[in-house]
Design brief:
Helix 3 (42-58) runs parallel beside helix 6 (104-129), helix 3 packs antiparallel against helix 13 and helix 10 (172-188) crosses helix 12. The chain is mainly alpha-helical. It is globular and about 70 Å long. A two-stranded antiparallel sheet has the order 1-2. The chain has 13 helices and 2 strands; from the N terminus they run H-H-H-H-H-E-E-H-H-H-H-H-H-H-H.
Length: 275
């Protein structure tokens, strides 16, 4: 299960999305999250799902990587769908027994929310699959630059915030690999991590959590020491290996998204809302 988590990984390719400016991808990812919550019927969410599938195809990222990113979250999505089936009221009754009543509206709502969550996971994964951590840092720093005058009195700068966010994202795969190593080491020593009740499993996690914390703090100290030795300061005057600039690809991506947003508004007005 741990190996299936692909958040923070970068897949090297030369697709349209890889060539787009990181600021474009950040803005459109946030806009996608906002727009998908505006969708009120299956026609609108279907259009967003179509956009998600097209984005997957043009990204040149293997489909199996998206399935791996969705696998850990699938039980949560299934649980959310089941709760919506049993607790959503209204609509035509499909099944009724004892105190449980399932309606067509409940089923539609469960499917709608599940589809929404899967689209969100895929689009969020695309951001890290198509953008390196360094470029992502530069993009976040550029977008948040206007906030510098607010944070300056607190002796905090935007570049520091961007660096913290990207380092956290970058080290997710490293921590996952570290957890896998610790678990294998504990299993080799005879630790039972998969059987027993909830309390027994919780106690079995203690030999994993403690070494993980020690390793994380040690890694953080080594990283800070390495940055200090290289005289890293960041902020004003810092040069970048790659300069960010908007290209024709960014323009086309923006135009397609604007057309989709117009379609969402039209479909929301034209058809009856599901939720």
């Amino acid at each position: 299960m741990i190996k299936d988590i692909t958040i923070g990984q970068y897949y090297k390719s030369d697709s349209v999305l890889h060539r787009c400016d990181p600021r474009t991808k950040l803005v459109l990812t946030i806009a996608f999250i906002v727009v998908i919550f505006i969708c009120k019927n299956f026609y609108a969410i279907g259009l967003m799902a179509l956009l998600t599938i097209v984005s997957m195809l043009i990204s040149s990222v293997p489909v199996k990587m998206f399935f791996k990113s969705m696998k850990p979250i699938f039980p949560l999505v299934l649980l959310t769908a089941i709760l919506n089936v049993f607790y959503t009221t209204g609509g035509n009754v499909l099944v009724s027994f004892w105190k449980i009543t399932i309606t067509d509206k409940a089923v539609f709502t469960a499917l709608f929310i599940a589809l929404r969550i899967f689209c969100l996971i895929i689009i969020s994964s695309l951001l890290t699959y198509t953008t390196t951590p360094t470029v992502l840092t530069d993009g976040i720093e550029k977008l948040l630059k206007p906030l510098d005058f607010i944070l300056k009195p607190f002796n905090f700068r935007v570049h520091t915030l961007a660096m913290m966010m990207t380092l956290a994202l970058r080290f997710i795969p490293t921590l996952i690999e570290e957890i896998d190593k610790i678990m294998n080491a504990q299993k080799a020593r005879g630790a039972d991590l998969e059987s027993g009740g909830i309390m027994q499993r919780a106690k079995a996690l203690i030999p994993i959590i403690i070494p993980l914390f020690v390793s994380s703090f040690r890694r953080a100290y080594e990283l800070a020491f390495a940055m200090d030795c290289r005289c890293y300061t960041g902020g004003d005057g810092r040069t970048r290996m790659k300069k960010m600039k908007f290209s024709l690809s960014d323009l086309w991506v923006f135009l397609v998204f604007i057309i989709v947003c117009a379609g969402i508004i039209f479909l929301n007005i034209k058809f009856v809302a599901v939720i």
